[in-house]
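Deliverable D2.4 — example input (C-alpha cells):
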C-alpha cells in the first residue's frame, strides 16, 4: 500500500518536512511504499471556484497541482503536515486543499479519496501553539474528501502529530508522529 506525505511549509527542509518524513520512515519500516512532496517552491494557483473541473475532470490551471493530484490518486494513505500560522494551516497548504476539488468530480460521482486513510501533523513554536486547531482543519478537509481519519491515539491522544519548536529535538512530539504512523498502518491493514 502507498502512503503520501505532503509538507505544507515553504521551508523545504524545516520542521514540518522533518516531521512528515519521520512518519513516512516509520511506515516504510512497516513495509509501506512512501512518497514525500513539499509545497516549497511550487507554483499552485488559487482555486477560483469555476468548477469546470467537474465537467472536464481536470483543473483549468496548468501548474504544479497536476503532480500533487496524481500522487493523491496513487496513495492509499495521506499525511498532511503544516506549520501553524495564526492558529491554522499554512496558506500554501490551504491553497493546495482548495485545488483538490478536482477529486470531488460531481455530486453524482463518488469522491476519489473516499475510503482512503488520512492524518495530520502540525508544527508550532509553543506546546499549545495552535497545533490542535491546525490538526482539526486538516481533519475537516480529510473528512470532506470522504477519508477515514486517524489521530496519534494513546497515550497522548492529540488530533494528530503535534510538534513544538525544533522537530528533531522534540521527543514527545516525535512520539505523537510515530503513533500517528502506527495508527495509519493499523487502519490500512484492516482495510486489506
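Example output (designed residues):
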Amino acid at each position: 500500500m502507498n502512503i503520501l506525505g505532503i509538507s505544507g511549509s515553504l521551508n523545504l527542509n524545516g520542521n514540518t518536512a522533518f516531521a512528515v518524513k519521520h512518519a513516512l520512515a516509520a511506515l516504510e519500516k512497516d513495509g509501506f511504499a512512501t512518497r514525500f512532496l513539499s509545497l516549497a517552491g511550487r507554483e499552485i494557483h488559487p482555486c477560483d471556484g469555476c468548477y469546470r473541473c467537474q465537467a472536464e475532470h481536470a483543473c483549468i490551471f496548468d501548474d504544479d497541482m497536476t503532480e500533487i493530484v496524481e500522487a493523491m490518486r496513487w496513495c492509499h494513505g495521506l499525511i498532511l503536515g503544516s506549520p501553524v500560522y495564526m492558529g491554522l494551516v499554512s496558506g500554501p497548504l490551504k491553497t493546495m486543499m482548495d485545488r483538490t476539488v478536482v477529486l470531488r468530480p460531481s455530486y453524482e460521482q463518488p469522491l476519489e479519496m473516499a475510503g482512503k486513510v488520512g492524518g495530520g501533523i502540525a508544527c508550532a513554536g509553543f506546546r499549545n501553539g495552535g497545533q490542535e486547531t491546525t490538526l482539526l482543519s486538516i481533519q475537516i478537509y480529510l473528512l470532506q474528501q470522504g477519508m477515514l481519519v486517524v489521530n496519534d491515539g494513546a497515550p497522548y491522544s492529540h488530533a494528530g502529530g503535534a510538534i513544538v519548536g525544533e522537530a528533531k529535538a522534540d521527543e514527545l512530539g516525535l512520539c505523537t508522529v510515530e503513533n500517528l504512523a502506527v495508527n495509519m498502518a493499523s487502519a490500512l491493514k484492516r482495510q486489506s
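The domain at 2-191 is CATH 3.40.50.360 (Rossmann fold).
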